[in-house]
Model the fold of this input.
Amino acid sequence: MATRVFVAALWMLVVTAVAQAADVSGTWAVTITTASSTISGKASLKQAGDRVTGQIGPSADPTIPIEGGLSGTKLTLKTNPQRGRTAAFESCELTVGDDKMVGTIEGGDVGSGRIEFVRMKP
Done:
């Protein structure tokens, strides 16, 4: 019984350490895939605790502000386009990895689809 409790406690520490280690700050190459098209772009993210802010958009266009939250390995982002502008998506849910985040998008110009962020090397 004591061994099981020790193993469970150790596992909780490992999981917590991994979850706290996630840092999504940096520059990311972004690919959005829908049933009818693929869109490439770029994102710049800053993380302070579990709050994430930044910019996203096609490389050649002005960017759109994004903000959201990180909980463990799940990142939720929402776009905040300025008046008169639209965004490819309204929100996305991502699973965070070391140099890659993958998830789904909803709303915006393209409706629904898959989104992938790949960390760009400096």
Notes: The chain has one domain: 23-119. The helical segments are 2-21. Confidence is low (pLDDT under 50) at residues 5-11, 13-19. The two ends are 49 Å apart (CA to CA).
